[in-house]
Amino acid sequence: MHPTLQLFAKKIREQHVKRGLFASGRLKYLYPKNDPLPDPPPKPPKVKKAKKEPPWMVQQTYKQALTGLYAGKHIQYGNQISEFGNKSRRTWKPNVQKVKLYSEALNEKIPIKITPLALKIMDRKGGLDKYLLSMRDKDL
């Protein structure tokens, strides 16, 4: 070790001995040994986060679909290609029909906007009421 570093180390060692931090080659702690360490604050319970679906798997319903039974149908986007290969953006909207459906619970006909797919599923389920009961809360 360089002599200057040895002097510096010796000086620091003397300071530690004066303060009672260094004795017989071992460091002592600053807080008194009689007082126990304070308990760490309790950790808050872990809250399970709801699993998020990846954004490419989630397709938000468009606003018009909130006014009727669309059975998961959405506006689709694509290109219209001309004879010469020119591409222009276009949309395909779902086939929405206005129909009056009979509800056994209300005992009357209800005018509603619905897609043919929803009508087909409704026939399989056995009517409007059974179809609505079989749907998940998220889809209503």
Task: Describe the structure in your own words.
This protein is α+β, with helices and mostly antiparallel strands and 140 residues long. Helix content is 24%, strand content 21%. The chain contains three helices and six strands, in the order H-E-E-E-E-E-E-H-H. The protein has helices at 3-19, 116-125, 128-134; strands at residues 22-23, 26-27, 76-81, 87-92, 97-103, 108-114. Helix 2 packs across helix 3 (128-134).
Question: Key terms for this structure?
Answer:
140 residues; two-stranded antiparallel ribbon; 3 helices; 24% helix; elongated
Summarize the structure.
With 140 residues, this protein is α+β, with helices and mostly antiparallel strands.
Q: Topology, please?
A:
Blueprint: H1 3-19, E1 22-23, E2 26-27, E3 76-81, E4 87-92, E5 97-103, E6 108-114, H2 116-125, H3 128-134
What's the number of helices? 3
Q: How would you characterize the largest beta sheet?
A: 2 strands, antiparallel
From N to C, what is the helix and strand string?
A: HEEEEEEHH
Query: Separation of termini?
Result: 79 Å
Give the overall average pLDDT: 79
Number of strands: 6
Helix content: 10-25%
- Quickly give the structural class: alpha+beta
Q: Using only CA atoms, what is the Rg?
A: 38 Å
Organism: Dentiscutata heterogama
Protein name: 10184_t:CDS:1
